[in-house]
Amino acid sequence: MRFKLCSVFSLLESGSDTLSPSMESRRVYSVSELNSEARTALEQAFTGIWVKGEITQLTRAASGHLYFTLKDEDSELSAVRFKSRSALLAPIALEQGDDVLAFGHLTVYEPRGRYQFIATLLQPVGAGALQRAFENLKVKLQDEGLFDPDAKKPLPRVPRSIGVITSPQGAALRDIVSVLSRRWPSVELFLFSSLVQGETAPQELREALHRAIRFSVSQKPLDLLIVTRGGGSAEDLAAFNDEALARDLHACPIPTLSAVGHEIDFSITDFVADRRAPTPSVAAELAVPDRVEILEAVSSTSQRIRRQLRHIWEDRANAFRLSADACLLRSPQRRFETYIQRHDHGVDALHRSLRQHWQSTCKRAHLATELLRLTDPQLPLKRGYSMTTLAGDGTPLRSVASLEPGSLIETHLSDGRLHSQITEVSADDA
User: Fold this and answer.
1) Do residues 252 and 148 both lie within one domain?
2) Of 235, 254, 289, which residue constitutes the final position of a domain?
3) What's the structural domain count of the chain?
């Protein structure tokens, strides 16, 4: 076919108005025949191919067919998606400017001799595809009841042990440790490390969740589980929109708290978890109470108890004086003696009641005082222990990995600090 076209073009370029006798034996194509031949050649050469481009000039016909143009930086390609070619495929919402992968074949629209692409499958790519997948999964899980508020477990008021699923190198873990050490330093924190972005991140997050559940059952009961990571793009946060992870998180027997990204970011784990926090720092604040507020509450309660006891004593004493005066005025000696005995019995009962109430109050106050004493960070220092931090940084050192010769450190003792410089760092073989 290419040879025939080239021959016709050569004839036209020669400027001859009529065919030479040598050309009379050759075939002359009509426009319809030529378009038909071109269509056959294109469909045979370019069938079952993928094309990537941006959708422009999108038109939805009343018949249900889609007419649009695929373009890149340099070229455009007319395309059509017939309703009958994709009736069995799930519908997708296409918009102007969407980047798509189109599967189909090239052809020629013979009536107009127009070169075009027939698309049988359209697949969005990029951030738009992620958002559509997110919305579709959100609707699916919501319809199944995975977001039902009645199924969510309450978070513990004062957790003793908390598990964290995140990357050990991420800023989210540092923020959580910093907030917990300030608000409630007695809590135990257990890290279940996992990648938080990339193709393998969803599977690693699921495995970390299963490790945390097994750990809670066999070794140390976890009162709360935080699933978290810092901010990032939609692609970075995509691991937390995995359907299998959402179902495992919904089935988790431990109360869960999701803190993924920043305040404006929402993930599927945020909707499935028992509670959502806008940032990792806020998640730590929701996880534990503030010990300063607890101290203030204990002090306020103690003062209120003292005031109530004083009022009770004064009311009982006034009532006794009124009864005694009335008895003396109305009764003879024998009746007065009876009232004296009743008074004695009443006083004894009052003393016993006040003594029991006071002992119970003292016991509760003692327990609260002891709890606050045990959470005092200075207690280990008074026993002879010390705490070492980098100079200017209040975070305790737990590993030599962050140290190098020449680093300045501070050693905190019960009565002061020692300032030192590292001359050698040796890691334990174990």
Assistant:
1) yes
2) 289
3) 4
Q: Which of 123, 148, 180 is where one domain is finished?
A: 123
- The pLDDT, as a whole number, for residue 11 is 38
Q: For 360-390, how does the pLDDT look when each residue is reduced to its tens digit (9 = 90+)? A: 999 988 888 888 877 777 777 777 788 888 8
- 152 shares a domain with 76: no
Distance between CA 116 and CA 112 in Å, rounded?
11
CA 47 remoteness from chain centre: 44
Question: Could you tell me if 353 and 411 lie in one domain?
Answer: no
Q: What is the pLDDT of residues 105-134, one digit of tens each?
A: 998 888 888 889 998 887 777 656 677 778
Q: Both 307 and 362 in a single domain?
A: yes
Using alpha carbons only, what angle is made at residue 404 by residues 400 and 408, rounded to the nearest 5 degrees? 100
Same domain, 9 and 100: yes
Phi, psi of 63 (to 5 degrees): -75, -10
Per-residue HEC secondary structure of the chain comes to CHHHHHHHHHHHHHCCCCCCHHHCCCCCCCHHHHHHHHHHHHHHHCEEEEEEEEEEEEEECCCCCEEEEEECCCCEEEEEECHHHHCCCCCCCCCCCCEEEEEEEEEEECCCCEEEEEEEEEEECCHHHHHHHHHHHHHHHHHCCCCCHHHCCCCCCCCCEEEEEECCCCHHHHHHHHHHHHHCCCCEEEEEECCCCCCCHHHHHHHHHHHHHHHHHHCCCCCEEEEEECCCCCCCCHHHHCHHHHHHHHHCCCCEEEEECCCCCCCHHHHHCCEECCCHHHHHHHHCCCHHHHHHHHHHHHHHHHHHHHHHHHHHHHHHHHHHHHHHHHCCHHHHHHHHHHHHHHHHHHHHHHHHHHHHHHHHHHHHHHHHHHCCCHHHHHCCCCEEEECCCCCECCCHHHCCCCCEEEEEECCEEEEEECCCCCCCCC
Dihedral pair phi/psi, residue 32, rounded to 5°: -65, -45
Asked if the structure places residue 430 within a domain, the reply is no
Q: Give the C-alpha separation, 430 to 339, whole Å.
A: 81
Cβ atoms of residues 194 and 207 within 8 Å: yes
